[in-house]
Amino acid sequence: MTNPRNRGQPEPDLEAATGAVEQSGGAQEKSASIGIRRTGTTFGIHKKDTRKTGGDLTDYTKRYGKDVVGQEMSSRGRFWLTYLDEALVFDEEMVEMHKDNIDVLLVFAGLFSAILSTFVIQTAQNLQPDYTAVSASLLIELVGYQRAAADVSSIPLSPFYPAISFSPSLADIWVNSLWFFSLALSLTTALVAVLTKQWLHQYISVVSDISPLGRGRIRQYRYMGLEKWQVPMIIGLLPILLHVSLGLFFTGLCIYLFAL
Fold first, then answer.
1. What is the rounded distance in angstroms from the CA atom of residue 92 to the CA atom of residue 242?
2. pLDDT score of 223 more than 70
3. How far apart are CA 224 and CA 230, in angstroms?
4. Angle between the N-to-C axes of helices 231-258 and 78-123, in degrees from 0 to 180, rounded to the nearest 10
C-alpha cells in the first residue's frame, strides 16, 4: 500500500538503488586495492616493497600524458615508458621466483656437502694401507725373530709386509666412487646456483642516464641473452642434479652398511 502523503510522487526504483550501492562498494574495494603490489618471499617471509604506488597502474594515459602527434615512437614516448613499466613487473616476478628457488638449493646443497664430506673422509682411509696396523704387525714379527734367534726355524712373513701389494675391497671402491661423485654433483649444483644468481642480479641492474628507448633496448637485449643461454632451463636442472646426488649417496650408504 502506498502512503497517502506520497501520492502523485514517483516510487523509488529499488533495483537501481541496489545496483548503485553495489557499484559504490565495488568502487571502494577497487580503490582500496589500488597501490597494493605483491612482493616476493624468501623462506615464506615477505619482503617489504618500498616502491611508491598509487592510482590506476594500468592507466598510462593519466600517468604520462598524451604524446605529441607524430612522436608516439620517439625515444621518450609513452610507448617505451609503458613497455618499461610492464617489463619491470614481469622481470621482478620472474627474478624473485628464481631467487627463492636458488636460495633453497644453496642452503640444502651446503648442508648436504658438509655431511657428505664427513662420510668421505672416513671411508677414503680404507682405500690405502693402514700403516698403524703395518707397524704393529712388523713389531710382532721382530719380536718373533728375537725369540727364534737361537733357532734355525724360519718365521713366516707378516701379512702386512710392505712388499705385499695392498688392494682395497670391492665394497670400499664402490662406496667411495659413489660418494665422491655425489659430492662433485652437490658442489657443482652450488657453483651453478651462485653463478645464476649473479646473472639474475646483473639482469635487473638499473641502467640510468639514458632515454627510455635505450633502457628498453638494453632490457630486451638482456632478456634475449637469458633465453639464448637457457638460463631458466639451467635453473630448472639444478634440483635434478641435487636429486641425483642424493640418490648416489643413499646407494653408497646401502653398500657401506651391507658390508659391515
1. 26
2. yes
3. 10
4. 10
The set of residues, in sequence order, having a beta carbon less than 8 Å from that of 140 and lying 6+ positions away, is 158
Cα dihedral value 147, 149, 155, 160, nearest 10: 70
Domain residue extents for the chain: 73-128+168-260, 129-167
What pLDDT is recorded for position 61? Answer: 66
- pLDDT at 15 > cutoff 90: no
Q: What phi, psi does 3 have (nearest 5°)?
A: -75, 130
DSSP the chain: ---GGGTTSPPP-HHHHHHHHHHHHHHHHHHHHTT-----EETTEEPP------S-TT-HHHHH-PPPTT-TTSTTSHHHHHHHHHHHHHHHHHHHHHHHHHHHHHHHHHHHHHHHHHHHHHHGGGGS--HHHHHHHHHHHHHHHHHTTT--PPPPPPTT-TTSPP---HHHHHHHHHHHHHHHHHHHHHHHHHHHHHHHHHHT----SS-HHHHHHHHHHHHHHHHHTTHHHHHHHHHHHHHHHHHHHHHHHHHHHHT-
Instruction: Dig out the grid coordinates for 183 from the structure.
Output: 659430492
Mean pLDDT of the chain: 76
Give the separation between CA 242 and CA 252, rounded to whole angstroms: 16
Q: Do 105 and 189 contact (CB within 8 A), yes or no?
A: yes
Taking residue 195's Cβ as centre, other Cβ atoms within 10 Å add up to: 13
